[in-house]
């Protein structure tokens, strides 16, 4: 069997390291072609020692210079690519088959588009890229002939629960139901959310993830981004996308059919499962995850968003449907505002409950517009970030 050559964008992060863990279990099926990171030189060097990729890219220029020097000192074959378009060139490289998109935030959009245009098998963890890119992203996938496979646990579950025949989705499916854990503050009094610290917000009850997505889970903005992601991935209108709180994160999401049957995907909360599925689809390979043990599974519970004060506790979730129904480009504005607000919260410049206030005020101030290309999208993203920054400064 010809080995699949895989490029991992964001290899030093939570998804990146889990991806390399799965790849490392199947040396007969996969080889690492290229790796990219932001600034963690030691970890990227270690990964280069183990997987011996042809190429590496680091976003931070000092980190890239350090990595190049240390690779050379150790006599390793990896070449460090540099420059503003290095990530895009790497993502589109003709010798790679598969690109795992695991950079956090809109910084991952340009390489995702490059991989899509180059017709790669594109494993999408980087939900922000699709939330920002929207129809433009999908059009790059179509024209490039790429295969877009979801990695986000909910979207992988939905993909696994849908019929293979894509053309039948609209007719057969009633609605998609995304499950949400409710994060660390599911039972907190809404008034207490002003006291939340970054440490508390990053302590997700079920998943170990990067800091940005952990905060998003705590505000449920993660679910808002995922509703938007589902709208683009599966093509159903916003009124056919639903969310239910399921604190145990065992059911990863569900599809309800016209006859009321519900098909779901279950498993222990371990991202190596959707990663292994994306890497091996349509086959299945060992992922390294623990299997579910139904004899010890104590509880599977569900909560409606309309009870227990959840709408008040998680006001950001409704912005998913509002921004999907607004002019195109609004989801990009929402994403930019949220990235700025979460960074400001992690930097202790604003309170946890002010994240939503920044998002709302930015949406009020910046009108969406239908971007024609990547430059247009980045312009809108930049405009929203500058506005969100001003709002953060007014709060802090
Ligand atoms: N973690 C999870 O379980 C899940 C994550 N996702 C999504 O996957 C994506 C990655 O999440 P996660 O792995 O948790 O995030 P992490 O913060 O753990 O990792 C992010 C990765 O991106 C790199 N990076 C950060 N900023 C830049 C930049 N400006 N340019 C280039 N590279 C950059 C980091 O490099 P470095 O650290 O070296 O600076 C790191 O390799 C997110 O979009 C998230 O929403 C989706 C579902 C589950
Ligand atoms: C693992 C994963 O896919 C995360 O997006 C996870 O779903 C976060 O959980 P909640 O956002 O439901 O808390
Ligand atoms: Mn998810």
Automatic annotation (TrEMBL):
It comes from the Bacteria. Keywords: Isoprene biosynthesis, Magnesium, Manganese, Metal-binding, NADP, Oxidoreductase. Its EC number is 1.1.1.267. One of its GO terms (molecular function) is NADPH binding. The keyword Magnesium applies. SUPFAM superfamilies: 1-deoxy-D-xylulose-5-phosphate reductoisomerase, C-terminal domain, Glyceraldehyde-3-phosphate dehydrogenase-like, C-terminal domain, NAD(P)-binding Rossmann-fold domains. Residues 148-234 form the 1-deoxy-D-xylulose 5-phosphate reductoisomerase C-terminal domain. Gene3D superfamilies: 1.10.1740.10, NAD(P)-binding Rossmann-like Domain (3.40.50.720). The keyword NADP applies. Residues 266-386 form the DXP reductoisomerase C-terminal domain. It catalyses: 2-C-methyl-D-erythritol 4-phosphate + NADP(+) = 1-deoxy-D-xylulose 5-phosphate + NADPH + H(+). NADPH binds at residues 12-15, 38-39, 126, 128, 210. GO terms for biological process: isopentenyl diphosphate biosynthetic process, methylerythritol 4-phosphate pathway involved in terpenoid biosynthetic process. 1-deoxy-D-xylulose 5-phosphate binds at residues 127, 153-154, 181, 204, 217, 222-223, 226. Residues 6-134 form the 1-deoxy-D-xylulose 5-phosphate reductoisomerase N-terminal domain. Mn(2+) binds at residues 152, 154, 226. Its cofactor is Mg(2+); Mn(2+). Pathway: Isoprenoid biosynthesis; isopentenyl diphosphate biosynthesis via DXP pathway; isopentenyl diphosphate from 1-deoxy-D-xylulose 5-phosphate: step 1/6. Belongs to the DXR family. Catalyzes the NADPH-dependent rearrangement and reduction of 1-deoxy-D-xylulose-5-phosphate (DXP) to 2-C-methyl-D-erythritol 4-phosphate (MEP). This is 1-deoxy-D-xylulose 5-phosphate reductoisomerase. The gene is dxr.
